[in-house]
Specification:
Largest sheet: 6 strands, antiparallel
Subcellular location: Cytoplasm
GO molecular function: serine-type peptidase activity
Keywords: Cytoplasm, Hydrolase, Protease, Serine protease, Signal
GO cellular component, one term: cytoplasm
Shape: globular
Structural class: alpha+beta
CATH class of one domain: Mainly Beta
Protein name: PDZ domain-containing protein
CATH topology of one domain: Neuraminidase
């Protein structure tokens, strides 16, 4: 073994490892001890070794000698003193948190290798100075994600948190499972996560959200640490503060080591048995550095309480907890360059297309795939050519009307700018030019002369590389008169058209057209005559550029992105844009001549409706405008509407209209690419003044229509939608008749060809085209692969993600942050990530600097195993001798049905004839492990009744989603019964699950069922995650009692004064007293609802303050599909108070405790019943 120790020593002292990992050794303690200044690493890589870009989730073994950590999706081990890390797992899945067993001989970890994140265990050995892992063994088997806490104090089981048993409250519960698998049991009925058990048996856990990335948050949602005595079931809050507390580990002396943000950043703290609390670290940025990513994360403490490990920025530290005033020590980690991770990512672009544009002549298609611009001829089996080849993101492809130029947008310069691409070399250029006949005859003569001994020099022949014939001024009498000669010249071939050159293109010239280092320029739209280019600036300013002079003028300044397109006269724009009430209308305006300087753009609102109108499309003759509108249905359910901009069409009979449209389509039947001889139309004369009165609805299908298009003559309108169960692209006539299916599937990016004969679209990541009359679509296969350097790709993605927030975050100064400096700082971290999970975590850290809600980043390229399709029976169970005892049956679930009913107290003993437990023993497997893959299948269960007899029954397990919904309804009914009992039948109860139209319908249903005839109503918005329907609910709850009605035959004396005809209101009205239940998990629009009830004095709020997270949000997508949330609109109370960070305060403050949860007590509900009854009795 001596040579191994010597080699390890050499590695630890080698210059390569020192360059990769050397760091100053810090000293720490908040307030009373010198801070640890976090110095950036000078060099993180050599030719042989590199440091991990983002090491995560370190765990320390009981001896303090080894660290396991996650990097690039795998688990690694490294000596705590530092050294070259060895890989413990090698799998394309993501391995996350890990934990050493108390004896150090096993390692538990999370992995999604078999589907959802489940728990695994490996045996460990030390060999040759390395830690070696055996074959992973799966411990849990469900389709629900599980978050590892750690081993139990005796090492016999694992503790974890999961939402595997959902209900009304959106929180995790904690569970226990043996290290060899077996039945999973609840630790407690209370909610919690991050369970850690010490040697004394205490379990410390966290309640509340994970707010590691928001250390400055102070509010009711800040997580707390609690302890649970498993023997007595007693709970105790630990180290309380108004800050966020995470990752609590009990120590044998009765103390606690944990992470807290009470100093303003995340640091390691310790509380002793007497309750004295001290900080153990105080990491601060180096001078000139704006951040270290909020401080400490991913704390782990050994079971004996002597050793700690954690991460800060891109490094792992250890801390000797047994030594007074110990300083954190960095763990110098090196990975073999060849062993650590790939540096290059190769992506097949065949199914990555998200935009397509067919050239005006129909011969070439341009696509955007994974942010790259490519082209190919539309003829069958043609090769694909790349126009761009970089990690920057390109988009918004558009052809010039002559087909010579392809416009697109790129962010290569750091801001979006507009570029052009033209053919530099085509196949035609490689072919020898054909000599004219006269030249050929002269060559023959010259050849004869040469044979006769002519010694004159060779004659040079000019070859035009464009393929055109040489020009000649010579004429002869044989050429005829001038007219005939001119005619002959016109008939001679003039070489390939721009479209023909694109179809045979080999290389391209790409040039910037419009760039601005300070603002984004995007969405280029060339005018149909090719003289102007419209583009958008920043958030939506419409800018018009004269392509001849390069001069630009701003037509309209917008805070919102308009949906805009040209009219075929190149003078009018039709666009839809939102106002400050977020209502969209369709506008049309005359931009004037291309070279106009003083022209005033005066658009006309064509639709003028308080519901949203968008996606305007105009026929090529300017006579027919179609658009999508929600005016006839619910919010964001779109129908197709039409208005004639030539009023005379409205006076035509059906056959006259048919003749008009037939002639109109014929007029455009030969339209394609323009040239200098193309005649341009005169500016349209449009009937706009009363257009808003003449709009007509063309579709009334259930759901929404989208991807609108109109044929050049206006006779055919296409859209995507569903007719019954049949979805696809549909066409209708200008009057909404003659509906036909064009093509099935889910087409997007729909565009008519200039002649109206074909429709191009994108579906399933492929560019396609179909005849406008329908039929089989042709697919333009893209045969190309993109090779990206991963670090460069991560850089591009991160800058784009940061730019989304810089551009869209609702606070105009981004809360005074130096966003550019922060972006550059986190960029150094993001470039070192290798998986989507790592990248997204760095993004979350950056976004956390804003200390705002509705921020997030998720998705991207990642390993995905097939779904496990676990079946659910709709029961709560406990393992008992012989099987699983049913402790409760969920109403409406499979076990509640007549043919497969199971009663509480009965025991499930077998499945498909196989016993679930050995004779006289507890089950050795968890029931949901046995139920893996059974969703929707018929199962034969053996059930032992309370009388001891076993019967067989056939049951069909349901999905997790179905069980989740039934468990929610089960909880609601239980609370409704509680209110009925507590109020003596005087009060009704309903819970609003979310703020969407689905739940508005549930609200209206439940409002009548629960409250009709009651004295008052409790409305529960606890754990409501938000949405957008507060004002619809208020329409019900604030309907004025301006009258009541008494029908003939009713006793006037018995008619209540709020009796009112239901059909006269848009929603069922309720005017009797109410109270609203709220808590720290009432979020977003649920908070707006609570604020509104208080603001208008409609009722009292009972519970705890809401979270304080109110911003309207949208989403943007990065180049690889990663989704970035973009909170863009703030919400304010009438006095100007920002609802963000200012949750709705309760009138009656009642906390929810784990003690109450474990006992099944809802103190908030009880207080609400008492408060509302008191208000009613007091006449309020």
């Amino acid at each position: 073994m001596e040579p191994t120790r010597t080699l390890l020593g050499l590695l630890l002292l080698s210059p390569a490892l020192t360059a990769a990992c050397a760091l100053p050794q810090p000293a720490a303690v908040v307030a009373d001890v010198e801070p640890t200044v976090f110095e950036p690493r000078a060099n993180a890589r050599t030719d042989v070794l590199r440091a991990p870009g983002l090491p995560q989730f370190p765990s320390i073994d009981p001896t303090g000698q080894w660290i396991a950590f996650s990097h690039a999706g795998d688990l690694w081990a490294v000596p705590a003193a530092g050294g070259v890390a060895s890989r413990l797992t090698a799998h394309p899945a993501r391995e996350g948190r890990s934990a050493f067993a108390p004896d150090g001989r096993r390692l538990a970890f999370e992995s999604n290798r078999d589907g959802a994140t489940n728990l695994y265990v490996v045996d460990l050995e030390q060999q040759g100075g390395r830690l070696i892992a055996g074959e992973p063994r799966r411990v849990t088997s469900t389709d629900r994600s599980e978050s590892l806490g750690g081993f139990t104090g005796d090492g016999s089981a694992l503790l974890f948190a999961s939402s595997r048993e959902p209900g009304l409250y959106r929180a995790s519960r904690m569970f226990r499972v043996g290290i060899d698998g077996g039945p999973i049991t609840r630790l407690t009925d209370a909610f919690g996560s991050e369970p850690h058990q010490g040697a004394d048996g205490r379990v410390v856990f966290r309640r509340g959200r994970d707010l590691y990335e928001r250390p400055r948050y102070r509010g009711p949602g800040a997580p707390e640490l609690w302890s649970l005595d498993l023997a007595s079931g007693a709970f105790e809050v630990l180290a309380p503060s108004d800050a966020s507390e995470h990752a609590g580990f009990p120590t044998p002396d009765g103390g606690l080591v944990f992470v807290s943000s009470r100093s303003g950043s995340n640091q390691v703290w310790r509380t002793d048995a007497a309750g004295r609390t001290e900080a153990l670290t105080n990491f601060v940025p180096a001078p000139g550095e704006p951040t270290i990513g909020h401080g400490v994360r991913d704390l782990d403490v050994s079971v004996d309480g002597k050793h700690a490990a954690f991460a800060v920025w891109d490094r792992i530290y250890t801390l000797d907890l047994g030594q007074a005033d110990a300083a954190p020590r960095v763990v110098a980690i090196a990975l073999s360059v060849d062993d650590s991770e790939a540096d290059v990512d190769v992506v097949d672009l065949a199914r990555e297309v998200d935009e397509s544009a067919v050239s005006p002549d129909g011969a070439t298609v341009a696509v955007v795939a994974r942010g790259e611009v490519l082209v190919r001829a539309t003829a069958e089996d043609r090769p694909t050519r790349r126009i761009t080849d970089s990690v920057s993101r390109e988009a918004d492809v558009a052809w010039s009307p002559d087909g010579a130029t392809l416009y697109f947008v790129s962010d290569e310069s750091g801001r979006k700018g507009i570029y052009t691409a033209r053919v530099a070399l085509a196949r035609q250029d490689l072919e020898p030019a054909e000599a004219p006949e006269s030249a050929a005859e002269e060559s023959d003569d010259e050849a004869a002369e040469s044979e006769a001994g002519d010694t004159s020099s060779d004659t040079e022949v000019d070859v035009d590389v464009e393929g055109t014939e040489p020009e000649s001024d010579a004429t002869t009498e044989d050429e005829g008169d001038g007219d005939e000669a001119e005619s002959d010249e016109d008939d001679e071939p003039e070489g390939p058209t721009p479209g023909e050159r694109w179809a045979q293109a080999l290389t391209f010239t790409v040039e910037p057209l419009v760039l601005d280092p300070d603002v984004h320029l995007w969405h280029p739209l060339p005018s149909p005559d090719g003289r102007s280019l419209l583009y958008l600036r920043e958030r939506g300013d419409m800018v018009l550029m004269d392509l001849a002079s390069g001069a630009s003028r701003t037509l309209l300044g917008n805070w919102d992105e308009p949906e805009v397109e040209w009219a075929a006269d190149s003078r009018h724009l039709v666009y839809a844009v939102s106002d400050l009430d977020f209502n969209g209308d369709v506008w049309i305006g005359d931009v004037g001549p291309a070279d106009a300087v003083d022209w005033t753009f005066e658009p006309v609102n064509v639709t003028r409706h308080p519901d949203i109108d968008h996606e305007p499309r105009l026929s090529a003759d300017g006579k027919v405008l179609v658009f999508l509108s929600e005016r006839a249905g619910e919010n964001f359910e779109w129908d197709v509407w039409r208005v004639y901009l030539d009023r005379s069409l409205e006076g035509l009979s059906q056959y006259e209209l048919a003749e008009h449209f037939e002639e109109a389509e014929k007029a455009f039947a030969k339209r394609g690419a323009i040239d200098e001889d193309t005649e341009q139309p005169e500016p349209f004369e449009l009937d706009l003044d009363d257009a808003w009165l003449r709009a007509r609805r063309l579709t009334s299908l259930p759901g929404s229509e989208s991807n609108l298009g109109i044929s050049p003559g206006g006779s055919k309108v296409v859209f995507t939608g569903s007719v019954g169960e049949d979805s696809g692209l549909w066409s209708i006539g200008a009057d909404g008749d003659e509906r036909e299916k064009v093509v099935g599937g889910s087409p997007g990016n729909v565009r008519f060809s200039p002649d109206g004969k074909q429709i191009a679209f994108v579906e399933g990541g492929q560019a396609k085209r179909v005849k406008a009359d329908g039929g089989k679509a042709e697919t333009f296969d893209i045969d190309a692969r993109a090779r990206f350097e991963i670090a460069a790709q991560q850089r591009q993605k991160f800058l784009e993600a940061a730019g989304v927030l810089e551009f869209a975050f609702y606070h105009p100064t981004l809360k005074g942050l130096d966003w550019g400096a922060l972006t550059q700082r986190y960029l150094t971290l993001a470039q070192g990530t290798r998986t989507s999970d790592e990248f997204n975590r760095v993004g979350t850290m950056l976004f956390g600097e804003l200390d705002g809600s509705h921020l997030g980043i998720f998705g991207g390229d990642a390993f995905r195993a097939p779904s496990q399709d676990t079946g659910y029976l709709g029961v709560d169970i406990e393992p008992v001798v012989g099987g699983f005892e049913v402790t409760e049956v969920i109403l409406g679930g499979p076990a509640d049905r007549e043919a497969s009913r199971i009663e509480a107290g009965e025991v499930i003993v077998s499945m498909a004839g196989r016993a679930l437990a050995p004779l006289g023993s507890l089950p050795e497997r968890d029931l949901y492990t046995v139920l893996e893959g059974t969703e929707g299948a018929e199962l034969l269960l053996g059930v032992r009744g309370v009388d001891g007899t076993v019967r067989q029954l056939v049951i069909e397990p349901m999905s997790y989603t179905a069980e989740r919904d039934l468990r929610y309804e089960h909880d609601v009914l239980a609370r409704r019964d509680d209110v009925e009992r507590l109020s003596g039948g005087r009060l009704g109860y309903l819970h609003i699950r979310g703020m969407s139209m689905r739940y508005v319908r549930d609200f209206e249903r439940d409002l009548y069922a629960a409250a009709h005839g009651k004295d008052g109503l409790l409305i529960d918005v606890r754990d409501n995650g938000g949405g957008s329907t507060t004002d619809i609910l208020l329409a019900s709850l604030t309907a004025p009692n301006h009258a009541f009605t008494v029908p003939r035959g009713a006793d006037p004396a018995s008619v209540p004064t709020d009796a009112y005809p239901r059909d006269r209101r848009l929603i069922y009205g309720y005017s009797r007293p109410i109270a609203v239940l709220i808590n720290e998990n009432s979020f977003s629009n649920a908070e707006i609802f609570a604020h509104s009830i208080r603001t208008i004095g409609r009722g009292r709020l009972i519970g705890t303050q809401t979270f304080g997270g109110v911003i309207s949000t949208g989403a943007a997508q990065l180049i690889d599909g990663t989704v970035v949330r973009r909170p863009f609109r703030g919400w304010y109370l009438p006095d100007g108070t920002d609802m963000e960070h200012h949750g709705a305060l309760p009138d009656v403050d009642v906390p929810r405790t784990p003690t109450d949860e474990a006992a099944g007590v809802d103190a908030q509900l009880e207080a609400a019943v008492a408060a509302l009854l008191a208000d009613i009795d007091a006449g309020k």
